[in-house]
Amino acid sequence: MTFSYYPGCTLKNKAKELDFFARESAGVLGFALCELSEWQCCGGTYPLAKDEIATKLSSVRALSDAKKSNHDLVTLCSACYNVLKQVNFDMQNDENIILKVNNYLKADGYEYHGETKVVHYLEVLRDVVGWDKVKEAVAKANGGDIKNSPFFGKKIGAYYGCLLLRPSKVMQFDDPENPQILEDFIKAIGATPVIYAERNECCGAYTMFEDEKIPQSRTKKIITNAKEFGAEFLITSCPLCRYNLIKNQNEEKIDIKYFSEILANALGIKGEANA
């Protein structure tokens, strides 16, 4: 199984681990990520203004390139996933945006109408590979027994943040109030998921540029809540969430890891992201 792959900017610099370990794990689990040849930055945030067309074009071009390859488009970064999926939704449903975007694309000799399916790497694990197959692969990598997984018995908290889940009508990733996909992932690698109230609340994200006290306050609530329920560390797919949660820790310190890194570790994959 081959997917088109959109890494996004951050996975080429500050979040190399998220990218590297996901690619390595994909090979073990039986699917391939084929990186788009000429992708551009998605913008990092979805432009809300209805008359803002130009900033959507880089996402549309990535979606169109995936269409040409006849593959679903996979991404890892929560922000990239959010932007690509919302722009794709526009290209399926908003006639004004469809018309204006395709007026731009005429110069390149093609049109796009939302034909590509945008999926997150976690959705590939859930819907294509299947959690049972992930569990089997982890067991195989650890002497045939899931109990030998380096994470067996570990209590891990999933941190979703906002962008994977909202707006729920468009994202359709999981239940926005009670998501399960990361908890199911945690079970598949042999660990125990910790359910805590703040797992799908905002970390403060871009408010850090306006008032740094907001992400500081949000981080404290998230980490305190997770530790109260026994989490030994947290996992996420969002580079900005990870940055905020690490930067704004005070006395309530906890490790924040990318889900792809612990997947790779559970599969016995060695290596360095900078290698």
Architecture overview:
By secondary structure, this protein is of the alpha/beta class. It has two domains: 2-120, Glutathione S-transferase Yfyf (Class Pi), Chain A, domain 2; 131-266, Rossmann fold (3-Layer(aba) Sandwich), CATH 3.40.50. The chain contains eleven helices and eight strands. It has helices at residues 16-29, 57-69, 78-93, 95-105, 121-129, 131-141, 168-171, 181-188, 213-228, 239-247, 259-266; strands spanning 2-6, 32-35, 73-75, 118-120, 155-158, 192-194, 233-236, 255-258. The chain has a four-stranded parallel sheet, with helices on both faces. Strands 6-5-7-8 form a four-stranded parallel sheet, sandwiched between helices. α3 (78-93) crosses α4 (95-105), α5 crosses α6 and α6 (131-141) runs parallel beside α8 (181-188). The two termini are 26 Å apart. 44% of the residues are buried.
Give the low-pLDDT segments. none
Largest sheet: 4 strands, parallel
Beta-strand percentage range: 5-15%
Helix content: 40-55%
Number of domains: 2
Count of individual helical segments: 11
Spatial sequence of strands, sheet with the most strands: 2-1-3-4
Gross CATH architecture of the largest domain: 3-Layer(aba) Sandwich
Helices and strands, in N-to-C order? EHEHEHHEHHEHHEHEHEH
Number of strands: 8
The helix-and-strand class reads alpha/beta
Radius of gyration, rounded? 19 Å
How is the CATH topology of the largest domain named? Rossmann fold
Query: What is the averaged pLDDT score?
Result: 95
**Approximate shape:** globular
CATH class categorisation of the largest domain: Alpha Beta
Alpha-carbon distance between the termini? 26 Å
